[in-house]
Amino acid sequence: MEILMSIVVGVLFTSAVYLILSKSLLRVIIGTALLSHGAHLLLLTMSGLKTGDAPVLMDGVTSYTDPLPQALVLTAIVISFGVTAFFLVLAFRAYQELGTDNMEEMKGNDSND
Amino acid sequence: MSLLHLAILLPFIAAVFVPFLFKGFRSIHTGWFVLLVPLALFIYFIQYMPVTSSGQTVSQTFEWIPSLGINFTAYVDGLGLLFALLITGIGSLVVLYSIYYLAKEKEALGNFYVYLLMFMGAMLGLVLSDNMIVLYMFWEFTSISSFLLIGYWYDKERSRYGAQKSMLITVFGGLSMLGGIVLLYIMGGTFSIRELIGMSGDLMTEPLFLFAMILILLGAFTKSAQFPFHVWLPDAMEAPTPVSAYLHSATMVKAGIYLVARMSPVFAESGVWLWLVAGFGIFTLFWGSFNAVKQTDLKGILAFSTISQLGLIMSLLGLGAAALHFDTLDENMYMTATIAAVFHLINHATFKGALFMMAGIVDHETGTRDIRKLGGLVNLMPITFTIAIIGSFSMAGLPPFNGFLSKEMFLTGMISVFELDLFNLNTWGILFPVLAWVASVFTFIYSIMLVFKTFLGKPQFDKLPKKPHEAPIGMLISPLVLVSLVIIFGFFPNLLSNSMIKPAVEAILPSLTDAGQEVYVDIYFWHGFQPELFMTLGIILTGTLMYATLAKWQGIYNRIPERFTINGVYDRGLDKSESGSFKLNEVVMTGYMRSYLIYIFAFFVAILLSTMGIRDAFAVDTSNLAEIRIYEVALALVLIAGAITILFAKSRLTSIVLLGVVGYSVALFFVFFRAPDLALTQLVIETVSVALFLLCFYHLPEISRKEERMKFKMGNAVISVLVGVTVTLIGIASFSNSQAFESISQYHIDNVYELAAGGNMVNVILVDFRGFDTLFEICVLGVAALGIYAMVNFRGVRRQKR
Hints:
Helices cover 65% and strands 0% of the residues of chain A. By secondary structure, chain A is an all-alpha fold. Chain A has one domain (1-50, 65-98): Helix Hairpins. Chain A is elongated and about 65 Å long. Chain A starts with a helix and ends in a 15-residue tail after the last helix. By secondary structure, chain B is mainly α. Among the domains of chain B are: 270-558, no CATH class; 593-743, no CATH class; 744-801, no CATH class. In chain B, helix 1 packs antiparallel against helix 2 (30-46) and helix 15 runs antiparallel to helix 16 (334-366).
C-alpha cells in the first residue's frame, strides 16, 4: 500500500509542478493546492498505514494507528487552507488591478526594475 | 596604554580636533596647528635612537582582544624606528610645505588635514606593530586615507578615477595579505611577528608556507606598486602635490617594502622568496624607468620613477636574503644588498620628496606640469632649479650625492649575483645585472630630462597659464631641508650607518646577528677601479648619448598599442567584469517566475537524485507494507486520473471541479487510513476551497476568459515528471528505512487518558501535548483573514490615481 501511495504522491507532485510552471495564475494556485494534497498524503504514508484502529481510545483495542502524523497533517491542512485562501484573494485582486492573469505579463518592464 | 601607544595614536586624536580648529580659527592656516603633531612625534622618536643603535628593542603591549591573541603590541626596533622617523620627519616637512601650497581661502583644509593625520597615524601604527592583525588594520587605514587624499578634489573626474583604482588594487592586495596572515596563524598559532620569526625553520616545512608567502607578497607588491600592480600609482598623481610627495614617494608606497623587510626573517630561507622578490623588483625597476622616459607630465615622470626605485629597493631586499645561506658575515657580500636597500630607502625618501615638492612649486608658479610647455625657468627660479638638479642627480646616481652611493652599492649587489651558487641563480641570474644596468641608463635619461626640459632650453613663457616667478620662501624650506640631507648623506654617509642602517639591517636579518656577529656598515665613495665604477661610467656615457638622440628613438613607445598595456588590461578588465556580471544577471534573472521555479525544481531534482545515487540510498523493503484492497486501488486510480486530467482540462471550470475530485478522494483516503478527524476537516476545507476557486473564476476579466488549453511545454513536462519521480523514490526509500528508530507515538497512546483525560488522541495531541502548534496555526488563519480583509477593502495609490 505504501508503495502505491508513494506513486500516487509522485503523480500529484508531477501534476502540481506542471501546473505551477504554467502561465495562468489560477492554474498556479491549483498547482499549489495539489502540491499540498501530495504533501499531506506523503506525511501520512511515511508513518505506515493501517497499523491498527483509528486513534480514538476504545476498550479492547490494543493497536492504534499512529496519531502523531494525523495531528501534523491536520495542522498542515488548516495552514495550507489559510494560505490558499489568501493567494486566491491576492490573485483576484491582481486581476482587478492589473487586468491580466498571465504570469508572463506580470514581469513588469525594464524601466521599473 | 603606554606613552608609545599614545604617540602612535596621537595623530588620530589630533585629527578629531582639526575640524574645530579649522572652523574656529579662520585667520590662521590650519596646517600650523597640525605641524605640531609630526614635529612632536619626530622629537619623541629621536629619543629611541640610542636604544636601537645599541641593539636593544622596546616592546609595549596593550591588550585589545586577548582572547583571540590580538593585542596592540608596539615594538620599536631599528627597522620600525627608521620608518617612524621617515614618517614623522617627512610628515613635518610635508605639512609645512602644504601650508604654503594649499590656500586657506579656497581649499577644504579641515578635510585635508584630517585625512593626512589619519594617514600618518595609520603609517606609524603599521611600522610599529608586532601583531599582524593590528598591522593589517593600520594597513587598510592607509589604503582608506590614501583613497580619500587622492580623491581630495572630488569634483575632478580623474581624481575619482585614480582614487577608485588605487583603492581597488591596494585593497585587493590588503585582503590577500589578510589571507596570508591567517595562514601564518594556522601554521604558527600566533599573530606576533617576533614569535613567527622564532619558528621560521619549522614553518618552512609546512604545506601552507608557500601560499602564505605568495599572499603576503601580493599585499606588499600591490602597496609598493610593483609590476604589474604599479598602474595605480601614476593615476594617484591627481592628488595634491604634498600628498604625492608624502604618500606616493616617501611613506605609503614603502609600506610594502617594510612588509617585505619585516617578513624576511620568516620567509627568506626559501629560494622562492628570493626569486619572487628580487625578480619582480628588478623587472619593476626596468619597467618603471623605461616608461618614465615617455611621460610628459612632471608628476608622471616622478610616479614612474618612484615605481622604478621601489623595484630597486625590492630587488635588493630579495637578493639580501641570499645572505642567510652563508655562515660568516665577514665575507658575506649579500649583506651589502640589504644595507644598500636600507640606505637607498632613506635616500629615495629624501630626494624624491624634494623632487615632488619641486614639481609642485613649478606647477604652482607656472600653472602647468607639462614639460612640453616648460623650459628656460633657470633664471626665474634659481632656488627651485638648485633643488631640482640636486634631487635629479642624486636620483640618477651621480656623485657627490647620496644616490650615487646607494646606486654603487646596488650595482655591487647585482654583480655579486654571478657568484651566487643557489637556486639556479648562476644561469638566469645574468638578467639581474643586465636589467639593472639598462634601467640605470633610463633612470639617467629621465633624471636629466626632468631638469633640462623644465629649467633649461628655450623659454616659452607665452604658453604658460601664469607668469612664472620664484616661489615664496615658506614653500622652499621643506625641499631645501631635504636636498641638504641629500648632500649631507652624500658626503657623510657614515652618519647614518651606525645609528640607522645597522639596527635596521639587524632587524631584517636577525638570524645572522643573533649568532653574535656584528654587521659592519661602511659606506665610501671610492672603492678603486671596480666593475661598478665602469658600469656607472657606461651609464653616464650611454645615457648622455641616448638623451641627445631622444627624438629619434622615442617612437618605440607608440609601438605598444593601448589595449596591451597594463592600464588597458585593467580598464578593460573592470569594464568586462561589470558588463559580464550585468549580462549574467540579464540571462539568469529573467523576471519570469517560471524561470526561477525551473531553477529551483532543477536543483531540487539534481541534488536529491545525485545524493541518492552517490550514497546508494535507494532501497525497497516490502516486509512492513500494509495490504492493498481493491477499492483502495480504485480510489487511487480515480485520484491519479483526476490529477492528470487537470493538466489537460480545456476550461478553468473543469480544472476546478477536478481539483475538487482530488480533494474529496484524499478525504476518502483519510477514511481508509483510519483518520476520522482528517477526513472531516478535509471534506469541509475542500468544499470551501472549491467555492473560493469558483469565486475567483467568476471574477475573471473578459479578456482572460478566453478559455484556451494550456500550451504543452516539453521542458515543463520533463521537470515535473522528474520532480514526481524524485518524490516517489524518496518516499519508497525512506519508508523502507523508517524502522531505524521506534516511533514516539506509543507515549501519546499510553498517556492520552491518564495525563490528558481524553479519548481522541489526535485532538488531545493538538490541544494538549502539542498545543503550541495549534495556537500558531490559529494565528496563521487570523493573519490570513486579516490580510484578505485588508486586500479587499484597502485600495492603494494606483486606484486613486485612475
